[in-house]
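Class prep. Sample record?

___
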Amino acid sequence: MPPQIIQLEHSESSKSLSSKHEGESTSDPSQSQTNARSDGSTSNGSFVREDTRIVNRTKAIVYICLLLASIAISVAAFFFVKKSEESVFEAEFRDLAGEIIELSETNAANTVGQVRSLATAISSHASTSQTAEVWPNITLPFFTQQVQEAIRLTGSELFAFTPMVPLEQRQSFEAYAAMEWPKHNKGQIPPNIHNVQGEVMSEKDDQDSTFIPVWQVAPPANDLDIMLLDMDTFPWFHQLKQDVLEVQHVVMSGIVDVEYLLKATRQQEVSEWHPRSIILEAVQKTLHSDNLDLTYTDPGGFVLAVLPWEKYFKNVLPHDIHGFIVEVNDHCGTIVTYRVDGHNATVVGQGNLHNTKYNYLHMEANFAGFAQYDGADTSVEHCYYTIDVYPTDELKDKYMTNDPYLFALAILGVFLFTTGIFFCYDCAVERRQRNISRVAKRTTDIVKSLFPKNVQERIMAEAKQEAEMVEKGMGKGTFRISMKDRLKETLDAGDRNESVHKNMPPIADLFPSTTIMFADLVGFTAWSSMREPAQVFLLLETIYSEFDTIAKRRRIFKVETVGDCYVAACGLPDPRRDHAVAMARFARDCRACMMSLMNELEVTLGPDTGELGLRVGLHSGPVTGGVLRGEKARFQLFGDTMNTTARIETTGKKNMIHISEETANILQAFGKGHWTKLREDKVNAKGKGELTTYWLVKDDGPRSTSSGVSSSEGEDEGRMRDDTTSLFSNATPSKSNALSEKAQRLVKWNAEVLAKILKDVVQRRQALNTIPNFEAVRLIEEVTQVGHVLGEVTEILALPTFDAEAAARQEKLAPVVLEEKVMQQLEKYVHAIATLYRNNAFHNFEHVSHVTMSVTKLFSRIVAPEVSGDDRTLHDHTYGITSEPLTQFAAAFAALIHDVDHQGVTNATLIEEQSPIAAVYHNKSVAEQNSVDIAWSLLMDDAFIDLRNCIYTTPAEYNRFRQLIVNLVMATDIMDKSLSQARKDRWAKAFAENNNNNSVFPEELEEQINRKATIVLEHVIQASDVSHTMQHWHIYRKWNARLFEEMMTAYRQGRAQKNPADVWYEGEIGFFDFYIIPLAKKLKECGVFGVSSDEYLNYAETNRKEWEAKGRQVVAEMVARLDAPGLH
């Protein structure tokens, strides 16, 4: 019967489990008899036993597989992590090795530059000397003092000047030396030109009848026997001299022994061996303006520098990086091995001494190619250098850790732990199954004994139905959804259009224990006034997305963002006892994240981004939370706690976490009282009166200190001055690697800005199918002279005409990717320009970065004006400026270089002081011309040839780029009356009301358009140079204070006659009335800048009113700050 069958199945199942776990034998005769009396019991029991054996075997296989898998994955993880560490080591080595090669090459270039500068100084002295000195009877005044700085910068051990003395002039030179030496030096020098043995050189053994005596040395010689030593008697010097005269540029010798010279100038003996090379440069007898490239037309002597090789490798690595091997091969038979550890380099010995197991990693590079022999003489061996860089075991050990073993053991442990848990779970399941089987057997027996078959079926069916209903959440297993659960489900639903619970009461609840956080960006209002909308949203999205990530990790509920304010809550929708502690940790994490992000974003978003801060306020208390259903429904919080939190935040300080007394009490209750510090002054909150508040002071790593003064607009009125000295770690403009981290970020940002425009330049060139002519470009580069910038200023810049076909082709071209070497040279050039800026308060590299940012912003408004139509319409509307990306690149480039080497004083001061550069530029636009010449000469260096080839490829492009640079930089000289009047005349002629383009010839129309384009471009650079006056009040205050400090510094140094504090207030008003506001109006009148012209004019007028109201107080504050101790 069916009931009997069911009973037997449960019985057999129970027996099978019992046989396994309780030791009962399934072959017991009595059990066999019982099974025999049951219908089909024997076959069912056999099936259960067979199934049990299969399950047990399967479990055994699973355990074995888990064990093997754990071992295999652990081994794989070990090798994977080890390989990852090796990959990191190799990548770091290649980066650092490349840095060693690059910076050592830079050090060599600096040394060559110093040698060239000394040679130029001697030639200049010989050319301008008013005495009767003639070659070779030349003595450079103050030789030691002039060379001392070069020795300090390069690490050279000796500089020497050796004139070329023909045989027939030997006696006259010896007489000159005997007469001239006592005038400047002490002691007695040898009377005759001699060799190293002291023998008098009366004639030459070879056909060369010229002596090369040592005449001036630095450091001064202690042993005067080296004076008048004929260097030409040294075979290596004779060959080096011949090489220099043949190739007509500086040449570096092989590794030579010059200990005889060095011993004569040392203060103490040196026992260590230091390989050295000589850098030799010829000295021209005269220096003419048409021969500034120092082509050897008439050499009169030589300048040599002795430099130990380890100097090239010092300060090329961070101080905490150790273990690099550098092998120097002069290819003249000498190989020297050095070890570079941080800032130091030491000689290991001669030969290849690196560990050969790192041969696969070594990096090789030619060294100082600009100072190698590149002539055609193959009769003798000419030295040239290569350097090979290898790692050491010490370096590798820094990157190799025990992580592979730890990862392998951890994975193995996890697998073993998981296997153990699985085994325990299996035992628990088997035990539960045995219990269920026993209960099922008893239940079946009871039902069978009490109810007939049909009743049994109904009971079983009802039980099954109830179980199914419970599983579905219905019937006896259901319950009402609470308000908090409905609220939580609604929050989880996000922005779905359909409500989760239709036709329900409002979804809201009281949360009695919460902590609320308001976090506001300090300085955001002023910062955003200088940016494009896309940059503003990029900043906010980056910050808030990081905050959201932290919130998820900390289980904090993000409520909303209102402008630049981030609102979050803890203790809802799920209550938390530690809500204040969790929120304090969240606030601390947000602050640390913010400070890290700002430094990173400064490379992308430009100057002042790193100065943004976060002001945080925390308060604890009850809030009402709910969903306001309807259009764009969202979750909101209400109550006095929200208002108090807002007051706590607005009365806080930059980069500090301000907490209420209630929050501090909760932290105290949780044992976190040491996290808080009582605020000394009471906070007067609107609608609350005086409040006692605290600071959250738990250390979370490096922090930015608060200014201690709050502002309702998120700005620090108390400190408008940045620490300008942090931009440059050394005031010497020519010293490499002197840039701070902030300045290096600005370098990268400027390089990215220029690279973006340069890509458009290349793409437009591709669309025009321009054929490069680099040979002609090189020729025209050579004839460009320095010292005549002002004479190159033109009234009208000739911009290209519109090419419709090229515009159509350009739209179809793929985006341009600049070559890696171009990007490297561009960043290297910007870095070099940055080092040329002096440590001025206003005219510094940060200032020109702001100017560049303003130029690019104005150009973005030109490129996308509010006009409709095709590219031709855009071209005509903007006077052709949009048709030539090279114009935009030149404007940004001019902004970058326009204040290079600015001395922190006006042109009038330079002229009054009779500065040498004032004489060079005939007392006209001195600083501006000097900036152009310095920056242009740097760009013409061979190190930037690929960059130049990317900027211009034809003489026409070169001339247009040069003309744009000259006109734009000269436009920044607003004090020159003639230049200013010329610009006013051009404006009046270009934008006269009676201009009628319909009645002129095409040639005249093109001239009118170019004239308008010229004056617009000049006004762009002018407005950008003073853009701080047409931006947010706090930006104006910051840069106005810096300019005041710079002018005051000049006054206190005696370089200015008037105290700027006496006229600063009235001067600023006049500056606004007669320059800034008229300039802003012209930007609007020219009609190509869209809303930016209104924006600039509005800010200018607003700042003028603010200054008129507050200026006298501001001046007094600036004077007081500069007079404060420690700020002089």
Q: What stands out?
A: The domain at 765-798+813-975 is CATH 1.10.1300.10 (Catalytic domain of cyclic nucleotide phosphodiesterase 4b2b).
